[in-house]
């Protein structure tokens, strides 16, 4: 860890990591609704639509591409404060890009520094400092499908205190039937330099979300009715509408069932997320810094997303303490780091049946899960400058994870619902160690070469242990920790201040990779370990200001990810086994590209006027372990015109206007395709792609052509 990174609370990616920083200049002049609009500028990143307007699956090197909702297999921070809970779940609902000045993307296994779940890497969102805002800014974005975002940023640096406050109110009708949303976010960062040696930082985030959710479609339903129009009721539903089958009595089908659409049933999410963190940094001298940090993170959910609704409160606590020492070892410049950490989450959550009646009427209890997740350990890191050109970085992390859970499943017999309960318990302890080694070689001012060997690990979450392949409650407690060993080799070439090229090749070996896939029960996923798999790929990035006012940017990722050892058992009367070795891991797009060319007038009366054309390409990918069915790829074109000018006024500082056309050619495309399970006939033959194409619970379509305009005014 570099000294600056330690002092700023991991506000930037430490030396030795394979990393990209996305700065505000890349998204300040466009309508940045979600992480999807900003993170595509980094190679290695892939984005998929989740369950909600700003709930996106963020994947680094394919790490999260198989998950149906939220973010897993990477660790997320805001200003160095963790926003990944102890069970490894992160969600992007609380992320409004207008609040941030930069985002650091750390790619590849990084558990030596970031601990459990960092098999894919890490993200750090950096809030705009108060001194940078230096006043008040008000902005509004609005456009197609009822989209409206009012936001406010205020910040100041006064004496030894610097603070910034961001607030936004975002709402829209959604472009798919039953996808109306309304979400509010507050984000505060304040730092006080109490003495020359002591700094105190406070972080507060609160997000309230209310949204309706459509039902994920089969591939055939998507082709028929991608935006789920005409889906008012199950009886009158148009072809291609997703439906769920609900028990009329709320507990079993003895009183009959009703097939209902998402609109009719009232499916959606009503969630709140509150994070409060504090950090104290103390300098013993000008070479040694001690840091203590505490975070309280509460996730409160009510999620009727299908035939059942998840209800629960998930409070967690995260404490860390570390020392950073800057000096010399045998005459060589050194930065040494040692830290310890402890975090825990204890919760009791219910799964209740959804029944007819509209507005997600709740029936009886389906299951209750009492869970405890605890992680504790230590980490150490040494950065040593061997010569003026060569720097070595070595690190190691050790961690114990304890998972405890009691799952109570409820079944109801007969018309009166005689209750039977089935208990499944788990008490698992995992110990993991993650070493890493990196070398950085500055050939000269133009060339930086990077080499890295690193490891990562990620334990299952408690809820994974109690869902079996049918989607029902059961015993899945045999799940193991996934581990990966990765090799990175790359370079950065910066011949002048107008051009930067980066390239990285990587090869990662996984053991017991945790993979999830959809089950026959809508909204429920099944998790399993693939014994061995390999991930390899290439990441390329370019930023070229090739002529005055002109700028070309591109981020490209190639992924080749395969099972090398995995036998899948599928039951239909008997159990049939299929060897998946050599098959592509589903959900992984092999090619993704974001490229943008733009022009900004820098002088004259039109100074500040500019625009760009952007192309996004995502290749087709397999949806199943047998590699029989593919989700189609797509190419999108976005067009942007913007104008920014300083204002001569005692009140106003600047004005920023923009207009953007998304998906200019109105392409219909897949924004999200969850993995689906293969099935077999009673004779043990795998059902073909034509059958799998009717498997529901997978696809959300992406937005058709949309127009978004916005303005931002900065006040003094």
From TrEMBL:
<dbReference type="InterPro" id="IPR000531">
    <property type="entry name" value="Beta-barrel_TonB"/>
</dbReference>
<dbReference type="GO" id="GO:0015344">
    <property type="term" value="F:siderophore uptake transmembrane transporter activity"/>
</dbReference>
<feature type="domain" description="TonB-dependent receptor-like beta-barrel">
    <location>
        <begin position="222"/>
        <end position="664"/>
    </location>
</feature>
<keyword id="KW-0812">Transmembrane</keyword>
<keyword id="KW-0675">Receptor</keyword>
<dbReference type="InterPro" id="IPR039426">
    <property type="entry name" value="TonB-dep_rcpt-like"/>
</dbReference>
<dbReference type="GO" id="GO:0044718">
    <property type="term" value="P:siderophore transmembrane transport"/>
</dbReference>
<comment type="similarity">
    <text>Belongs to the TonB-dependent receptor family.</text>
</comment>
<dbReference type="InterPro" id="IPR037066">
    <property type="entry name" value="Plug_dom_sf"/>
</dbReference>
<keyword id="KW-1134">Transmembrane beta strand</keyword>
<keyword id="KW-0472">Membrane</keyword>
<dbReference type="Pfam" id="PF07715">
    <property type="entry name" value="Plug"/>
</dbReference>
<keyword id="KW-0998">Cell outer membrane</keyword>
<feature type="region of interest" description="Disordered">
    <location>
        <begin position="1"/>
        <end position="51"/>
    </location>
</feature>
<protein>
    <submittedName>
        <fullName>TonB-dependent receptor protein</fullName>
    </submittedName>
</protein>
<feature type="compositionally biased region" description="Polar residues">
    <location>
        <begin position="14"/>
        <end position="35"/>
    </location>
</feature>
<keyword id="KW-0813">Transport</keyword>
<keyword id="KW-0798">TonB box</keyword>
<dbReference type="InterPro" id="IPR012910">
    <property type="entry name" value="Plug_dom"/>
</dbReference>
<dbReference type="InterPro" id="IPR036942">
    <property type="entry name" value="Beta-barrel_TonB_sf"/>
</dbReference>
<dbReference type="GO" id="GO:0009279">
    <property type="term" value="C:cell outer membrane"/>
</dbReference>
<feature type="domain" description="TonB-dependent receptor plug">
    <location>
        <begin position="16"/>
        <end position="122"/>
    </location>
</feature>
<dbReference type="Pfam" id="PF00593">
    <property type="entry name" value="TonB_dep_Rec_b-barrel"/>
</dbReference>
């Amino acid at each position: 860890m570099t000294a600056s990174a330690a002092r700023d609370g991991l506000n930037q990616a430490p030396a030795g990591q394979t990393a990209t920083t996305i700065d505000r200049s890349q998204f300040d002049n466009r309508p940045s609704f979600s992480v999807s609009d900003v993170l595509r500028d980094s190679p290695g990143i892939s984005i998929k639509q989740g369950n909600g307007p700003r709930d996106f699956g963020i994947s680094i090197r394919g790490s999260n591409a198989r998950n149906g909702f939220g973010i897993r297999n990477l660790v997320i921070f805001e200003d160095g404060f963790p926003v990944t809970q102890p069970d490894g779940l992160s969600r992007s609902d609380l992320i409004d890009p207008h609040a941030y000045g930069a985002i650091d993307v750390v790619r590849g296994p990084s558990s030596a520094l970031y601990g459990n779940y960092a098999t894919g890497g890490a993200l750090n969102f950096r809030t705009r400092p108060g001194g940078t805002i230096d006043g008040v800014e008000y902005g509004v974005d609005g456009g197609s499908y009822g989209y409206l975002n009012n936001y406010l940023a205020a910040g100041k640096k006064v004496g030894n205190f610097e603070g910034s406050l961001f607030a936004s109110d975002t709402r829209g009708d959604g472009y798919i039937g039953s996808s109306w949303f309304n979400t509010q976010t507050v984000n505060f960062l304040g730092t006080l330099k109490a003495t020359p040696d002591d700094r105190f930082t406070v972080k507060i985030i609160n997000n309230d979300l209310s949204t309706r959710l459509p039902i994920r479609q089969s591939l055939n339903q998507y082709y028929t009715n991608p935006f789920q129009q005409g889906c008012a009721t199950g009886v009158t539903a148009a072809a291609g509408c997703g439906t769920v089958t609900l028990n009329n009595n709320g507990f079993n089908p003895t009183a009959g069932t009703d097939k209902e659409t998402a609109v009719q049933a009232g499916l959606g999410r009503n969630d709140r997320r509150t994070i409060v963190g504090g950090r104290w940094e103390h300098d013993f001298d000008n070479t040694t810094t001690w840091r203590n940090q505490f975070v309280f993170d509460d996730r409160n959910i009510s999620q009727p997303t299908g035939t059942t609704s998840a209800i629960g409160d998930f409070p967690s606590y995260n404490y860390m303490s570390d020392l950073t020492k800057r000096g010399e070892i045998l005459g060589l410049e050194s930065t040494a780091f040692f830290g310890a950490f402890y975090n825990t989450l204890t919760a009791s959550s219910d799964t209740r049946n959804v029944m007819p009646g509209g507005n997600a009427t709740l029936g009886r209890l389906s299951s209750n899960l009492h869970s405890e997740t605890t992680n504790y350990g230590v980490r150490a890191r040494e950065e040593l400058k061997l010569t003026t050109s060569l720097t070595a970085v070595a690190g190691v992390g050790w961690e114990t994870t304890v998972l405890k859970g009691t799952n109570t499943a409820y079944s109801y017999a007969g018309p009166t619902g005689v209750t039977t309960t089935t208990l499944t318990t788990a008490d698992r302890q995992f110990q993991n160690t993650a070493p890493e080694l990196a070398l950085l070689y500055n050939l000269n001012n133009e060339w930086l070469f990077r080499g890295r060997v690193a490891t990562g690990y990620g334990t299952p979450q408690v809820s994974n242990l109690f869902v079996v392949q049918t989607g029902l409650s059961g015993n899945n407690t045999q799940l193991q920790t996934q581990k990966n060993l990765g090799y990175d080799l790359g370079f950065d070439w910066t011949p002048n201040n107008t051009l930067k090229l980066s390239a990285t090749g990587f090869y990662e070996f996984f053991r017991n990779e945790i993979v999830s896939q959809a089950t026959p029960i809508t909204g429920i996923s099944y998790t399993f370990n693939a014994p061995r798999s390999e991930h390899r790929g290439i990441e390329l990035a370019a930023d070229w200001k090739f002529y005055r006012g002109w700028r070309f940017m591109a981020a490209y990722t190639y992924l080749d990810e395969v099972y090398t050892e995995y036998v899948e058992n599928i039951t239909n009367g008997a159990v049939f086994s299929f060897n998946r070795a050599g098959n592509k891991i589903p959900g992984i797009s092999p090619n993704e590209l974001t490229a943008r060319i733009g022009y900004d007038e820098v002088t004259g009366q039109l100074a500040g006027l500019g625009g760009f054309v952007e192309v996004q390409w995502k290749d087709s990918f397999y949806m199943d372990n047998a590699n029989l069915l593919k989700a189609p790829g797509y190419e999108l074109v976005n067009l942007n015109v913007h104008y920014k000018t300083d204002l001569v006024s005692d009140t106003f500082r600047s004005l920023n206007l923009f207009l953007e056309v998304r998906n200019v050619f109105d392409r219909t495309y897949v924004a999200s395709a969850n993995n689906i399970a293969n099935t077999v006939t009673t004779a043990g033959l795998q059902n073909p792609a034509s059958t799998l194409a009717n498997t529901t619970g997978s696809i959300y379509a992406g937005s058709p052509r949309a127009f978004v305009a916005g303005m931002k005014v900065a006040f003094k």
